[in-house]
Amino acid sequence: MVFFTGYMAFESYAKLREAQLSTLAGFIKALEAKDLYTRGHTERVAYFSNMIGQEMGFNGTQLETLRWAALIHDVGKLAVPREVIRKKARLTPQEYEEMQAHVHHVEDLLNEVEFLRPMVEIASNHHAHFDGNGYHGSSAHDGDVPSLEARILSAADSFDAMTSTRSYRVALTQEYAFAELRRHGGTQFDPDVVEAFVAVLTASGERYGSPVEITEQEARRRAEQGMGHAHSISDPAPGRIDYGPDAAHG
Fold first, then answer.
1. H-type alpha helices, the chain
2. 173: which strand partners?
3. How many CA atoms are closer than 13 Å to the CA of 168, on its beta-carbon side?
4. Contact between 162 and 240 (Cβ < 8 Å)
5. What is the pLDDT of residues 139-164, one digit of tens each?
6. Assign residue 234 a region: left if phi > 0, alpha if psi is -120 to 50, beta otherwise?
7. What are phi and psi of 78, to 5 degrees?
8. Domain map of the chain by residue range?
9. pTM listed for this prediction
10. Domain 2-247 top-level CATH class
Protein backbone atom coordinates (compact mmCIF):
# COMPACT_ATOMS: atom_id res chain seq x y z
CA MET A 1 0.00 0.00 0.00
CA VAL A 2 2.84 2.37 0.91
CA PHE A 3 4.59 1.52 -2.35
CA PHE A 4 1.41 2.11 -4.34
CA THR A 5 0.79 5.47 -2.64
CA GLY A 6 4.39 6.49 -3.30
CA TYR A 7 4.11 5.44 -6.93
CA MET A 8 0.91 7.43 -7.40
CA ALA A 9 2.51 10.50 -5.83
CA PHE A 10 5.53 10.17 -8.11
CA GLU A 11 3.31 9.70 -11.16
CA SER A 12 1.29 12.78 -10.20
CA TYR A 13 4.48 14.80 -9.78
CA ALA A 14 5.80 13.58 -13.13
CA LYS A 15 2.59 14.63 -14.87
CA LEU A 16 2.73 18.05 -13.21
CA ARG A 17 6.35 18.51 -14.29
CA GLU A 18 5.45 17.45 -17.84
CA ALA A 19 2.63 20.00 -17.93
CA GLN A 20 4.97 22.71 -16.62
CA LEU A 21 7.59 21.89 -19.24
CA SER A 22 4.94 21.98 -21.94
CA THR A 23 3.85 25.42 -20.74
CA LEU A 24 7.45 26.62 -20.75
CA ALA A 25 7.97 25.34 -24.29
CA GLY A 26 4.87 27.28 -25.28
CA PHE A 27 6.33 30.47 -23.79
CA ILE A 28 9.55 30.02 -25.77
CA LYS A 29 7.69 29.33 -29.02
CA ALA A 30 5.49 32.38 -28.45
CA LEU A 31 8.57 34.53 -27.95
CA GLU A 32 10.14 33.20 -31.15
CA ALA A 33 6.93 33.98 -33.03
CA LYS A 34 6.93 37.50 -31.63
CA ASP A 35 10.54 38.18 -32.57
CA LEU A 36 12.22 36.19 -35.36
CA TYR A 37 15.64 37.24 -34.05
CA THR A 38 14.98 35.10 -30.99
CA ARG A 39 14.89 31.89 -33.02
CA GLY A 40 17.72 29.64 -31.88
CA HIS A 41 18.99 32.21 -29.38
CA THR A 42 17.85 30.45 -26.22
CA GLU A 43 19.26 27.11 -27.37
CA ARG A 44 22.64 28.63 -28.24
CA VAL A 45 22.84 30.53 -24.96
CA ALA A 46 22.03 27.31 -23.10
CA TYR A 47 24.72 25.49 -25.11
CA PHE A 48 27.37 28.15 -24.45
CA SER A 49 26.43 28.34 -20.76
CA ASN A 50 26.79 24.57 -20.46
CA MET A 51 30.23 24.72 -22.09
CA ILE A 52 31.39 27.38 -19.65
CA GLY A 53 29.91 25.57 -16.67
CA GLN A 54 31.68 22.34 -17.57
CA GLU A 55 34.95 24.22 -18.05
CA MET A 56 34.53 25.76 -14.59
CA GLY A 57 33.85 22.41 -12.92
CA PHE A 58 30.07 22.45 -12.47
CA ASN A 59 28.43 19.16 -11.52
CA GLY A 60 25.38 17.67 -13.20
CA THR A 61 22.82 19.40 -10.98
CA GLN A 62 24.52 22.78 -11.41
CA LEU A 63 24.63 22.34 -15.18
CA GLU A 64 20.95 21.42 -15.30
CA THR A 65 20.04 24.53 -13.30
CA LEU A 66 22.20 26.67 -15.57
CA ARG A 67 20.63 25.16 -18.68
CA TRP A 68 17.09 25.91 -17.53
CA ALA A 69 18.05 29.45 -16.55
CA ALA A 70 19.40 29.98 -20.06
CA LEU A 71 16.27 28.60 -21.68
CA ILE A 72 14.00 30.98 -19.77
CA HIS A 73 16.22 34.07 -19.62
CA ASP A 74 14.34 36.04 -22.31
CA VAL A 75 10.80 34.79 -21.66
CA GLY A 76 10.02 38.13 -20.02
CA LYS A 77 10.20 39.76 -23.45
CA LEU A 78 6.73 38.38 -24.08
CA ALA A 79 5.52 41.38 -22.09
CA VAL A 80 7.64 43.89 -24.04
CA PRO A 81 5.98 45.60 -27.04
CA ARG A 82 6.95 44.04 -30.36
CA GLU A 83 7.89 47.42 -31.84
CA VAL A 84 10.45 47.94 -29.06
CA ILE A 85 12.04 44.53 -29.57
CA ARG A 86 12.23 44.94 -33.34
CA LYS A 87 13.27 48.60 -33.43
CA LYS A 88 16.39 49.24 -35.53
CA ALA A 89 17.15 52.73 -34.24
CA ARG A 90 18.24 53.95 -30.81
CA LEU A 91 15.67 53.27 -28.12
CA THR A 92 14.11 56.21 -26.31
CA PRO A 93 14.59 56.36 -22.51
CA GLN A 94 11.03 55.07 -22.06
CA GLU A 95 11.60 52.20 -24.49
CA TYR A 96 14.86 51.37 -22.75
CA GLU A 97 12.99 51.08 -19.45
CA GLU A 98 10.41 48.83 -21.11
CA MET A 99 13.19 46.58 -22.38
CA GLN A 100 14.93 46.48 -19.01
CA ALA A 101 11.68 45.39 -17.39
CA HIS A 102 11.86 41.99 -19.11
CA VAL A 103 14.01 40.72 -16.22
CA HIS A 104 11.04 41.36 -13.91
CA HIS A 105 8.49 39.99 -16.34
CA VAL A 106 10.22 36.60 -16.32
CA GLU A 107 9.65 36.53 -12.57
CA ASP A 108 5.99 37.43 -12.99
CA LEU A 109 5.49 34.71 -15.60
CA LEU A 110 7.42 31.84 -14.06
CA ASN A 111 7.86 32.30 -10.31
CA GLU A 112 4.77 30.19 -9.66
CA VAL A 113 6.49 27.20 -11.29
CA GLU A 114 8.15 25.87 -8.15
CA PHE A 115 10.96 23.85 -9.69
CA LEU A 116 12.00 26.86 -11.82
CA ARG A 117 12.40 29.36 -8.97
CA PRO A 118 16.19 28.98 -8.62
CA MET A 119 16.52 29.29 -12.40
CA VAL A 120 14.23 32.34 -12.48
CA GLU A 121 16.51 34.10 -9.98
CA ILE A 122 19.52 33.43 -12.21
CA ALA A 123 17.68 34.45 -15.37
CA SER A 124 16.37 37.68 -13.86
CA ASN A 125 19.93 38.78 -13.08
CA HIS A 126 21.62 38.03 -16.41
CA HIS A 127 21.89 41.78 -17.12
CA ALA A 128 23.48 42.50 -13.73
CA HIS A 129 27.17 43.31 -14.09
CA PHE A 130 30.15 41.76 -12.35
CA ASP A 131 30.87 45.11 -10.65
CA GLY A 132 27.29 45.45 -9.38
CA ASN A 133 26.06 47.81 -12.08
CA GLY A 134 23.64 46.88 -14.88
CA TYR A 135 20.06 46.02 -14.01
CA HIS A 136 18.93 43.37 -11.59
CA GLY A 137 15.94 41.19 -10.86
CA SER A 138 13.80 41.82 -7.78
CA SER A 139 15.91 39.39 -5.72
CA ALA A 140 18.95 41.71 -5.96
CA HIS A 141 19.79 45.38 -5.60
CA ASP A 142 22.06 47.85 -7.36
CA GLY A 143 25.63 47.09 -6.36
CA ASP A 144 25.00 43.40 -5.68
CA VAL A 145 27.39 41.02 -7.42
CA PRO A 146 25.33 38.46 -9.37
CA SER A 147 25.76 34.73 -8.79
CA LEU A 148 28.35 32.80 -10.78
CA GLU A 149 25.54 31.19 -12.77
CA ALA A 150 24.15 34.63 -13.71
CA ARG A 151 27.65 35.79 -14.68
CA ILE A 152 28.04 32.77 -16.95
CA LEU A 153 24.65 33.43 -18.52
CA SER A 154 25.58 37.09 -19.06
CA ALA A 155 28.73 36.21 -21.02
CA ALA A 156 26.98 33.54 -23.09
CA ASP A 157 24.05 35.84 -23.88
CA SER A 158 26.28 38.74 -24.91
CA PHE A 159 28.51 36.52 -27.06
CA ASP A 160 25.48 35.25 -28.95
CA ALA A 161 24.24 38.82 -29.27
CA MET A 162 27.41 39.89 -31.02
CA THR A 163 27.83 36.85 -33.23
CA SER A 164 24.21 36.75 -34.43
CA THR A 165 22.26 39.04 -36.74
CA ARG A 166 19.77 41.25 -34.94
CA SER A 167 17.16 43.83 -35.87
CA TYR A 168 19.64 46.71 -35.71
CA ARG A 169 22.99 45.04 -36.47
CA VAL A 170 24.29 42.14 -38.54
CA ALA A 171 26.57 39.52 -37.01
CA LEU A 172 30.08 40.43 -35.88
CA THR A 173 33.08 38.09 -35.83
CA GLN A 174 33.91 35.64 -33.06
CA GLU A 175 37.22 37.44 -32.53
CA TYR A 176 35.42 40.75 -32.06
CA ALA A 177 33.06 39.18 -29.53
CA PHE A 178 35.94 37.67 -27.54
CA ALA A 179 37.77 41.01 -27.55
CA GLU A 180 34.68 42.84 -26.28
CA LEU A 181 34.08 40.32 -23.50
CA ARG A 182 37.70 40.72 -22.42
CA ARG A 183 37.60 44.51 -22.72
CA HIS A 184 34.67 44.61 -20.32
CA GLY A 185 36.10 41.96 -18.00
CA GLY A 186 36.16 43.15 -14.41
CA THR A 187 33.28 45.57 -14.99
CA GLN A 188 30.41 44.02 -16.94
CA PHE A 189 31.78 40.48 -17.08
CA ASP A 190 33.56 38.11 -14.72
CA PRO A 191 37.12 37.79 -16.15
CA ASP A 192 37.36 34.14 -15.05
CA VAL A 193 34.13 33.32 -16.86
CA VAL A 194 35.34 35.09 -19.99
CA GLU A 195 38.65 33.24 -20.05
CA ALA A 196 36.93 29.90 -19.45
CA PHE A 197 34.58 30.63 -22.35
CA VAL A 198 37.38 31.67 -24.71
CA ALA A 199 39.41 28.59 -23.78
CA VAL A 200 36.65 26.01 -24.17
CA LEU A 201 35.15 27.44 -27.36
CA THR A 202 38.56 27.83 -28.99
CA ALA A 203 39.48 24.26 -28.05
CA SER A 204 36.23 22.99 -29.56
CA GLY A 205 37.13 24.38 -32.98
CA GLU A 206 33.58 25.68 -33.41
CA ARG A 207 33.04 29.03 -35.15
CA TYR A 208 30.25 31.56 -34.73
CA GLY A 209 29.47 34.95 -36.21
CA SER A 210 30.52 36.68 -39.39
CA PRO A 211 33.12 34.86 -41.53
CA VAL A 212 34.61 38.23 -42.53
CA GLU A 213 35.77 41.12 -40.39
CA ILE A 214 33.19 43.87 -40.03
CA THR A 215 33.08 46.96 -37.83
CA GLU A 216 30.23 47.72 -35.45
CA GLN A 217 29.38 50.82 -37.48
CA GLU A 218 29.25 48.87 -40.74
CA ALA A 219 27.21 46.11 -39.09
CA ARG A 220 24.59 48.65 -38.05
CA ARG A 221 24.56 50.30 -41.47
CA ARG A 222 23.93 46.95 -43.16
CA ALA A 223 21.00 46.25 -40.83
CA GLU A 224 19.46 49.64 -41.57
CA GLN A 225 19.73 48.92 -45.30
CA GLY A 226 18.02 45.57 -44.96
CA MET A 227 21.17 43.49 -45.33
CA GLY A 228 20.63 41.73 -42.03
CA HIS A 229 21.48 38.23 -43.20
CA ALA A 230 24.55 39.07 -45.26
CA HIS A 231 27.14 37.75 -42.84
CA SER A 232 25.19 35.56 -40.43
CA ILE A 233 26.34 31.98 -39.90
CA SER A 234 23.87 31.22 -37.12
CA ASP A 235 20.14 31.82 -37.05
CA PRO A 236 19.22 35.43 -36.17
CA ALA A 237 18.98 36.06 -32.44
CA PRO A 238 18.85 38.79 -29.81
CA GLY A 239 20.83 39.44 -26.64
CA ARG A 240 23.59 42.05 -26.26
CA ILE A 241 26.28 43.91 -24.42
CA ASP A 242 24.52 46.76 -22.66
CA TYR A 243 26.21 49.98 -23.65
CA GLY A 244 23.04 52.06 -23.36
CA PRO A 245 19.68 52.75 -25.00
CA ASP A 246 21.13 52.41 -28.50
CA ALA A 247 22.04 48.80 -27.73
CA ALA A 248 19.15 47.85 -25.54
CA HIS A 249 17.27 45.51 -27.79
CA GLY A 250 18.14 42.21 -26.18
1. 2-34, 41-55, 60-72, 82-85, 93-100, 102-110, 117-123, 148-163, 174-183, 191-204, 216-224
2. 209
3. 21
4. yes
5. 777 788 999 999 999 999 999 999 99
6. beta
7. -60, -25
8. 2-247
9. 0.80
10. mainly alpha
